[in-house]
């Protein structure tokens, strides 16, 4: 898996990322509820320390998000979002030389993050906000396009689909890829994400995971985020702090179904699950 002759490099600004094997993206939330409230600098230092630990545990990417996409969360202003993410991105890039992804839908945040040295854009709204597509083209960075039905405020109020969920998600993502390409965003810069938990019941999520072949068929690398999500809570009856083992099972499954980037909280344990699952997959291929 470290054979450089089979490497698939994703150019990410000052970095490049080999996605010929599954990689782990560590989640760094910088919403006010996420780190200690002992003043801005304490919170910033805590965030940096946490990122450093995730990198030491094997994370290839740190995903910095300042807008809570929690169901029911209030929207944040551009200035608020910038105030939260900009200092963190700056220090992650300068002090840790980290490959930083920015979890945002806001065109101003996309621009600013790219200027500060971020290497990837992660947009749960798939660049559908006014100006986001143009900002992403200007940034020249890879973009993760995620499927969401509805908006965080209402997406979990009895989500339903008129067709099989995998058709709805694949159709949406294919249309977003087409729109991005038509606007001048190169296909090689795109990643796709089914958006687990974003306007989906637990049954939708489980089916989507089983039918990920419908998404890999689109020919772009897949990113998935299931870490600590309520689909684990609902199946196992576990509160959020007891969802690690369930998340590891899902991570292993996602690798088996073709995911190339896993967005997670618990980097160390997930690295083991991912690498073990990948070892089985590779061994299988030797006999093809
Ligand atoms: C509360 C509920 C807080 C849900 C945070 C969340 C994804 C993402 C998020 C994902 C991509 C979380 C989510 N989830 N970006 N951002 N894919 N690309 O659990 O699944 O982290 S926020």
TrEMBL record:
Matching SUPFAM superfamilies: Dihydropteroate synthetase-like
Cofactor: Mg(2+)
GO molecular function per UniProt: dihydropteroate synthase activity; metal ion binding
Main EC class the enzyme belongs to: transferase
Known EC number: 2.5.1.15
Pathway the protein acts in: Cofactor biosynthesis; tetrahydrofolate biosynthesis; 7,8-dihydrofolate from 2-amino-4-hydroxy-6-hydroxymethyl-7,8-dihydropteridine diphosphate and 4-aminobenzoate: step 1/2
General function of this protein: Catalyzes the condensation of para-aminobenzoate (pABA) with 6-hydroxymethyl-7,8-dihydropterin diphosphate (DHPt-PP) to form 7,8-dihydropteroate (H2Pte), the immediate precursor of folate derivatives.
Family: Belongs to the DHPS family.
Protein name, per record: Dihydropteroate synthase
């Amino acid at each position: 898996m470290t054979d450089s002759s089979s490497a698939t490099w994703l150019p990410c600004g000052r970095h490049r990322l080999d996605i010929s094997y599954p990689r782990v993206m560590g989640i760094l939330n910088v919403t006010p509820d996420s780190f200690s409230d002992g003043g801005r600098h304490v919170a910033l230092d805590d965030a940096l320390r946490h990122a450093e630990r995730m990198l030491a545990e094997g994370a290839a990417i740190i995903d910095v998000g300042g807008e809570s996409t929690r169901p029911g969360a209030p929207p944040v202003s551009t200035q608020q979002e910038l105030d939260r993410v900009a200092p963190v991105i700056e220090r992650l890039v300068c002090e840790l030389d980290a490959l930083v992804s920015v979890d945002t839908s806001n065109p101003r945040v996309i621009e600013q993050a790219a200027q500060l040295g971020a290497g990837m854009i992660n947009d749960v709204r798939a660049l559908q906000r006014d100006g986001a597509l143009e900002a992403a083209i200007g940034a020249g960075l890879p973009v993760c396009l995620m499927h969401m039905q509805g908006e965080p405020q209402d997406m979990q109020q009895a989500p339903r689909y008129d067709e099989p969920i995998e058709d709805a998600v694949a159709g949406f993502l294919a249309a977003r890829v087409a729109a991005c390409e038509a606007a001048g965003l190169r296909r090689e810069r795109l990643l796709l994400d089914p958006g687990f938990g974003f306007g989906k019941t637990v049954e939708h999520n489980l089916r989507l995971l089983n039918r990920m072949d419908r998404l890999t068929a689109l020919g772009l690398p897949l990113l998935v985020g299931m870490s600590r999500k309520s689909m684990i809570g609902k199946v196992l009856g576990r509160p959020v702090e007891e969802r690690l083992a369930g998340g590891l099972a899902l991570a292993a499954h996602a690798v088996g179904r073709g995911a190339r980037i896993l967005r997670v909280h618990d980097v160390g344990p997930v690295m083991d699950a991912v690498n073990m699952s990948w070892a089985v997959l590779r061994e299988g291929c030797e006999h093809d």
